[in-house]
Specification:
Helix 2 links the parallel strand 2 and strand 3. The protein is 25% helix and 32% strand. With 169 residues, it is of the alpha/beta class.
Length: 169
């Protein structure tokens, strides 16, 4: 059977989703001085970078981008931040990933910040597949897709030989 790709979002639609979510983040944090955007590597950080770019143009608060590297195959939490996690104390964290499927990645991402007193933590994903195995909900979602487990959502961002897009395979 050939590998069929169905276009879900094109480049312009991806940017429209990110723009809308940036305004939602702005509305949720109007009184803040700084918001930390934690992009989960490898692709959540691409969404986080774009979110930060929009926020820098529309928000009165400072937005700071950090990268979160998780070992998603581990049975325990193994993570690296590119800053000391204590720098996040008493701040707002927006945890960003490209696709939410089971919720394991976001659950691990939340775990990184459990020992730090935060003002609040929010989650943001470009695509929510609605197949959660973990009790994770998103605060800001680009699009919710009802898919079957065998289908795969492919988010293409920042690839030199391909235009930004989201495909369902």
């Amino acid at each position: 059977m050939p590998d069929k790709k169905i276009l879900v979002l094109n480049k312009q639609q991806i940017q429209q989703k990110i723009d809308r979510m940036a305004y939602q983040v702005l509305e949720d944090n109007l009184d803040e001085e700084e918001v930390i955007i934690a992009g989960i590597l490898p692709r959540g950080n691409f969404v986080a970078e774009r979110l930060k770019t929009v926020l820098d143009n529309i928000a009165p608060f400072k937005s700071r981008l950090i990268n979160l590297d998780l070992d998603k195959d581990s049975s325990s939490l193994k993570a690296k931040l590119d800053i000391d996690v204590q720098e996040c104390a008493n701040k707002v964290i927006i945890l960003v990933d490209d696709v939410l499927s089971s919720g394991k990645t976001l659950a691990y991402g939340l775990g990184v910040f459990l020992d730090v007193p935060l003002k609040k933590m929010r989650t943001l994903v470009l695509i929510d597949r609605n197949h959660k195995s973990f009790p994770i909900a998103t605060d800001f979602t680009g699009i919710a897709l009802s898919t079957v487990l065998k289908e795969h959502v492919d988010v293409v961002l920042n690839q030199p030989d391909e235009e930004d897009a989201v495909y369902l395979r």
